[in-house]
Amino acid sequence: MQKTISRRSFLKFDVKEQERIVCIKPNFPSPEIAQLELENIENEPFIFKLPVVKDKAKKIETIPTLKKLNSSEWDMSKTAHLLRRISNSANYKDIEQFYNKGLDNTVQQLLDNAKNTKAHPPGNWVYEKVPNFSQLSSGEKSEIRSLYSDRRKILIDWWQDLILKDGISLRENMTLFWHNHFATNAQSVFFPQAIFEQNDAIRENCIGNFKTLLRRITFGPAMMIWLDLNDNKKNAPNENFARELMELYNGS
What single string gives the DSSP state of each residue in 150-162? Predict the structure, then answer.
């Protein structure tokens, strides 16, 4: 299994190696495809477990409050704080512009920006139907596996580009927040179409109704594959998704 030195370890001159995390289902989408994935694991993005932090974080003395911010308290400092919390590219000109808009107009515009924009997909292939692997030759299976691997990497670059170019909007930050909440592994899901569908569903509902978002995620192929809903049978139930849904996803 490949090991590497993390950037943090290198900068600290600590050569402790990190082991790759492999999330490949042994029989999905077929045993032959799964074996091909393992044989080509070196070409996949390197995912590793973060080291356990032993040092406790320093306590910060703050006064907690749920006090509503009044328009009269809106100033450049609070404008800067808000924009830097919800976006990745706020500069002085942006801060000045939103300060002049006032508190209420700023909040409304930030919400509108998140609701009224839709990301263009990285290609029409995100809508392609998946092949019937039982009807493909070994060479065709290898070709599809390589193609899907490349497309999963394209999705990473596509989303990073969206985050960098989102402007003053909370859309991509909220998409990332819910992506972390409904965490799935692209390597395990395998199909780039399913990965895009989930990402797009999260983005579309990132500041909308949570029940609607939860239903979209539940019945999306990425979650079904990730938590084994495709293996959930009447006479052999699989509790993975039900457990995560009740314990984690809906906050109960």
Answer: HHHHHHHHHHHHH
Helix axes 192-204, 138-164, angle to 10 degrees: 30
E strands present in 73-213: none
Query: Rounded CA gap, 114 and 173, in Å?
Result: 10
Residue 249 tokens read as: 């996803």
Torsion of CA 178, 182, 183, 188, to 10 degrees: -130
Is residue 251 over pLDDT 80?
no
* CA-wise closest residue to 79 among 52, 49, 57, 103: 103
Among residues 241, 111, 249, 92, the alpha carbon closest in space to that of 174 is found at: 111
Q: Where in the chain are the domains?
A: 3-50+117-249, 74-115
Write down the pTM of the prediction.
0.85
Q: pLDDT tens digit string along 156-197?
A: 999 999 998 888 889 999 999 999 999 899 999 999 999 999
Left (φ > 0), alpha (ψ -120 to 50) or beta: where does 51 sit? beta
CA pair distance 217, 197, nearest whole angstrom: 9
